[in-house]
Structure formats: C-alpha cells, structure tokens
Amino acid sequence: MKAGKVYLVGAGPGDAGLITLKGLEALAQADVVVYDRLVNPSLLNHCKQGVQLIYVGKLPDRHILSQEEINSLLVELATSGRVVVRLKGGDPFVFGRGGEEALALKKAGLPLEIVPGITSAIAVPAYAGIPVTHRGLSSTFTVITGHEGEGKINTAIDWDRLAKDPGTLVFLMGVENLPLIVRNLVERGQAVATPAAVVSWGTRPEQQVVLGTLADIVDKTAAAKLSAPAVIIIGQVVGLREQLRWYENLPFFGKRFLVTRARGQAADLSRRLQALGGEVLEYPAIAIEPPLDWGPLEQALNELASFDWIFFTSVNGVEFFFKKLQDRGLDVRAIPLKVQLGAIGPATRQSLEQRGLKVTYVPAEYRAEALALGLGERLRPGQKVLLPRADLARPWLAEYLVQRGLTVTPVTVYRTVASSAAAGSVIESLEQGKLHVLTFTSPSTVNNFFALLKGRDLARLLRGVTIACIGPVTAAAVCDYGLTADVVASEYTIPGLVQALKDYYQRRERDE
Ligand code: SAH
C-alpha cells in the first residue's frame, strides 16, 4: 500500500479568504479532512468530490475526541495510504496543539507537511483596525494563552515581565479569564489607564469589539456579553482603532449570504459580496438527475388521453417530462387536446408556453393554502390528474387533490441529488439564525435551494431572512414556495443584484 501523507494546514482566523494558496491546494488533494470547530466550513467546498470529512471540534466545555485520540486518528488515516489534511484554525502551531500532532506523525514515520496559517493573534486585531506593532507605540507583541489551567492561569507565564512590558500583549483563549488576566497585570504594576480591547468572532460577520482600559474592560466586556472565541489586546496600539477601523464600515459587514456553488456567474457574485464585507456560504449545486425508474412515467404517457389534467409543479418537471416524450419520438402533439395543463407558478407556466402549450390554470397566489383553494374551483371531483414531480416532492398537493375526490397519479420525472453534508450546514446555519440573506440568480437556484429544505417548516426557518433575486422571473419562482422576495434587482445582472442589495441595506440603515 502506498504511504499516505498528512498536511497540517492553518485555515486562518475565520474569513475564508484568509487561507493560503498552499492550504487550498492541499485541501483540493485531500482524501480525508480532519477539521476543528473554528474552521470556516465553507473552506471544505474546495475539497474534491467524495472527500471524507471528519469533525473533531472541541467545544468550550466538552471535547469530542481527546488530543490523543485525534493524534491516533491522524496516524491511522495516513497509515491506510490516504492523503489527509488536518485543518486547524489560525496557524497550526499557535496554541493549536499542532506540534503534538506533528510529533505523533513523525513518531509513526509518516510523511508530514506543514502549511502555516494566518493566526488570529494578528489577524483579529487587524480586522478591528489594531496593528499589533506600530512605530512609536509598540515595538514588540507577545502572544499569551489566557487559558485556565487547574483553577489558576498557567504558572509558566512570567506575569512580572508582562506587567512591565511596554509592547502589545495579545491573549488568546482568555475571555473567560479576563478578570484574572487584568488583575494579574494591574497587581504587578501595569497602569490601569492602559488601553485594552476584546474582539470576539474576529473576521466573521459576528465580529464584536469592546474598547476600554484595564480599569473598565472587564465590566464593559461583561456588559456586551462577549463570548469565546475572542482575542484580548492590551497596549497603546488599541487607540489606533478609532482611525483605522475598516471592516465594520464595509456595506455588507455582518451579513452572511447564501450563494449557489460556483457555476459561472455565481463565483462572480460570491467575490463581489465578499469584497463588500459580506461572508458567503456556498451551497452545493444540486444535481438534477433522471428518475431511477422511468416505468411510471412511461405508463402514464401510454395513457395520456385518460387524464383530465397534467399539473406541473416545477420547471424541472416540465423539462424531464418533455425530454421523455422526445426520447420516444413524440412532441407536444402527443398531449390530447382534452387534457388541460396546470402550472404551479409563472416560471413553470413560462416553460410550458415556450413549448407552444396553452396553460389553462395558474393559481393567482402561490401560498400553499391559497393555492389549494384555487385548485378546488378548477379541478373537479372525479377528474384524473397526472402530477409529474420530483422524487422528494412535498406531498401536500397530491394529498389535497385526493381529499377533494380527484384521482391523482404522481410520477417521478426527476430526482434531486444533493451533498447531504453541505445541505446540513445550510440548514444548521438557518436554524441558528446565522444566515441573513438568500441570493437567487435563476429559478433553478431557487428550486435547488428549496429542494434542500424539503419537508421543513419554511416560515419558521426563514423568519427574518432576506430573500434577494436577480429579477422578476426568479422572484416568481420564490413565490412558488409561498414566499416573497425582499430585494429584486432592477437591472437583471450580478452587479445589478449586488447594487440592489446595497441600496436595500442603505435604506434600512436610514430607516433605523
Ligand atoms: N491556532 C489558532 C489559535 C487556537 S486557540 C490561531 O493561530 O489563531 C483558540 C483561540 O484563538 C480562541 O480562544 C481565541 O482566543 C482565538 N481565536 C481564534 N479565532 C478567532 C476569531 N475568529 N476571533 C477571535 N478570536 C479567535
């Protein structure tokens, strides 16, 4: 068996753009990625298909795997001949226990490569507008662990030296121990007027900064309810933030956008949103695939004349239905005139009309309840309805029609196949209120997205979430799911969409 290899890679402090090129290359090659809690999950989108993702994240008060178990896991994975990326927040050797992992791999005789990362000790202050050194203010910076060891702060720290240090002090893992850190310094003679800052979730949309001095930073941090992860910066350089603050001033600071995974223009959209300070969560382009079994549709096509209605519930449904007809050497003329066509919304209707078909019924409203009411007036008890749909279609429509006394033949005309790992992170972000804007650049991005959420309570999940569409057709596709677009670009291009979002947030800020 060929020997595996482990890349110990620094993922940077959070902003996905702050990983190195070499780190990205390693991710693209990996067979397995073992990653931590503070790693931005969108970095995992750079992995190849079929990669195995192993989360070994530590939670503040609960370790999922012990360090020894992680070390053995890495050894085991690499011994089985695979290319392993051990992806760690910031830099792997700055309080990351990367050294221990590297030693375990060396001891096992496994090839190892180390890809340094941008540490939060420098980048988080930088995103708060605080340079760790500055001519005339600070000629050194010291990075210190603020982590509690058995009830008291690590005794390996020379507090006397730190208290006298005229340079910048940067504490990681210290927010819970902030009162103790401040006391240790002040008791040893550090001036209480020394400026101090606490920055939590630096480089991310949740970034929060508390400014003060050693006299009041503890109270201010508690009042602001800042929590880990946070970096504490103590020293004169903190005063520069007032002039150098930049990240929070970007128009999309604080917003996390959902964008369909890079396909042509979507990559452009991600770049533009990030350039304006937004964070982007890319969700997987769902593959739309033919059904596993064409049998039910074939049979329905043989009996088309027996139906009163064909009711299409998506553009994809229309496309697969007609593709099958075409495969059989048929075209729209195979649909008998007596069969009426229904479409769930304007995008679906348009797709039928583009094929020269007359659509007799499109519900006026696209909310589920209203739709059902409208349907009841048109589709009469005793009628037969062919319902071409996706394999995982929402069942309420078929159920409603059956309740109304119609005979419904649902047939699967396509399947939606998504990477469940990525879908999981989208759903989790929505549930935790960490996704603020959904962007849609075509009806198919809308359909792909809602395929991910199939069977979930959309109203609850999307409460407070802004929906932004590139134009009215896409907005209409959103309506098909009973929702309304908050932002619709007036120029139907990616720059037009970004501009519409900028205007939207500017207006909101003015109104607040
Ligand atoms: N190897 C990492 C540090 C790991 S220790 C690095 O080089 O950055 C974890 C600590 O890093 C956290 O407790 C916090 O102090 C800091 N940290 C990491 N990411 C952070 C972020 N986005 N914002 C604020 N602090 C962060």
Spell out the blueprint of helices and strands:
Elements: E1 5-10, H1 21-29, E2 32-35, E3 52-55, E4 58-59, E5 62-63, H2 67-79, E6 83-88, H3 98-107, E7 112-115, H4 120-127, E8 141-145, E9 148-149, E10 152-153, H5 159-164, E11 168-172, H6 178-187, E12 195-200, E13 208-213, H7 217-223, E14 230-234, H8 241-244, E15 256-260, H9 265-275, E16 279-283, E17 287-289, H10 295-302, E18 309-312, H11 315-327, E19 340-343, H12 346-353, H13 368-378, E20 384-390, H14 396-403, E21 407-417, H15 420-431, E22 437-440, H16 443-452, H17 458-461, E23 466-469, H18 472-479, E24 487-488, H19 494-511
Parallel strand pairs: 1-6, 1-7, 2-3, 2-6, 8-11, 15-16, 15-22, 18-19, 18-20, 20-21, 22-23, 23-24
Antiparallel strand pairs: 4-5, 9-10, 11-14, 12-13, 12-14, 17-21
Helix pairs in contact: 2-3, 11-12, 13-14, 16-18
Bound molecules: S-adenosyl-L-homocysteine.
S-adenosyl-L-homocysteine (SAH) is lined by residues 13-14, 38, 88-91, 94-96, 119-121, 124, 172-173, 199-204, 228-231.
